[in-house]
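ugh finaly. both done.
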Amino acid sequence: MSDALLPNEAPRLGTAGFVVVALLALGAEAGVTLLALGFWPVPGAAYGAVVGHLGLTALLTAWLPWRRRRGLDLRLPGLLAVTTLFLGPMGPAATLGCSLLFAVFSRYAMGFQDWYLSLFPESQVEPAQELYELIVSGREQAHLAAAESFTDVMAVGTPQQKQAVIALVARHFRPAFTPALKLGLSDADPSVRVQAATATARVEHEFNERWQSLDKAVASNPQDVATRVALARHLDDYAFCGLLDANREAEVRQKALDGYRACVAMAPDDDEIRHDFGRLLLRLDLVDEAADTLESLVASASDRRLLVWYAESLFRLGRFGDLRGLCAQRPEILGPDAELPDTLRDVVALWNGLAEAA
């Protein structure tokens, strides 16, 4: 967490000066009150008491800018001015009591910066670290399994477990983790809600910072395909993260689409760019263009995900014969003997069966 994101240190308290002024105000208000109550038989005592009270309040109000110019704290002095105006001698007395309580409790209070940083402590839980290693190792479907585990913890875990999950999600965010964050935002425990809101803001801030950095890099070197691809993929991930409202998501996705189009025009033979471009087209319901983009990659594709995207585009276009032909064309990936995830096995078996029957 960058120190630039944290607020500046609190101003100096100036306690000695405040206590002296508060005691003087207490004495002056006590005298004014006694004068108003007639303890001293002075002609026009009531009017003098009112003038004295208002004059003292004016002096306390003028004292506040003086403290601000010297970088001193204004909270208790401001409270002193307000309470003196409305409560008379009880105002300074109550404010001195508040200053005493402040001095006692501030000895044990956690500073804002320490509290803010404590929202994302370094995880000491070995299973959590092991889970993260599983995610970043690139094992198939690992991030989905992690997302389900995180969601389960956010639904039934203790506040401490939920806070540990939010801290881990914030440090190693993936779009699949968004449901866990959203559960945190609606949690019954206020501390969990605050941490989830802070984590969401942190994720969005990091996305925007990366966007600005890549945007500047593209502007400085428009012919660099690698930078353009990085920007388009980042915008695609940002739109897919699930943290944006519908209008903002559509706007970011359109920028990603424009970026992919420029990348395909500059590097038409790059299969990875065409794969990502085709996937985004399918998400945006541009199914015909998605099928045309992915079709040329089918013969050489080694990634099952590409074939799955292409198969979905064929199904949505009603090209069922081509879909059965795809299973027959790439049996090592989509054939009846291929190792498939549970979510795909029955579907692919259906089309393989139709292909054999045909």
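ok and the 2nd:
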Amino acid sequence: MTQPTPSAHLHAALSLAERGIPVLPLREGKGPMGNCRACRSNACGGRPNMKTPGPCACAAPCHAWAAATTDPTVLTSAAWAAAWWQAAAVAYHPGGTALTVVDLDNAGAVEWARHALPATRTVPSTRGEHWIYRGTMTSPNAVRPGVDIKSLMSYARWLGPGIGTMAPLPDTVRALAVKEPTTARPAIAPTVSAPAGGGQCPHRSPAYLERGIAMAEQRIEDAPDGIHRTVYRMFLAVLSAHGRCGCLTADHVDRLFTAAQTKGESLRHCETAWTNARTQLGM
């Protein structure tokens, strides 16, 4: 089967933009383009995964969903040219066009939706379906097995217009974003106390810890492939160095999860990698 060319991806993006749908290129693996050198490690002032847009005005498609645009001048600019050559697909920002996508990742999730959710426009995906509703909401991942939500501050792969009449976003979908305590992210602040002996833990040095976290973020961001393996190895390295002394905080681990999710990892995969790393270290 012939793969779409960069010009085909750009043509599709321009067609969507003309209809008022903000678009961006996706790299192989369905992840956004990595931050450019000027924007790495939050140097530009905008958060790497753009959960909050920040002040960055980079001309490249550098900040995941926040780079999505309907401006044909931007889409065809020299700053975006390299990204289209690397692109494996086109994505769009559902929240930017007042939509919510319920991403059903397997047959079991699709079967659940057919019984639990009101009918709406559907689009076949690689392993399941996208159900598209009119309206916006937050964009939590892993709201139930095989189900992610893509709306505000998120992106979804463009898979075609779909079939069926688009329904208003129902309360049953909004309720999915309210997780029960048992499904929330596990407590990530280490429970092991600092080493005994009366001395100060050397890992509590802000500079030492910051270098470790920043290095792990950069390794995850730069991984060209094998992202599952890279995320696990970086989680393992951070926990090995800092997990037993109590210096890690929820903010530190949130940065690691953010870096992984920016590369396309789901929250579920992040949690699994974190748990496996702790188990490997006997923590």
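summary for the 2nd one i guess: Residues 108 and 114 are 10 Å apart (CA to CA).
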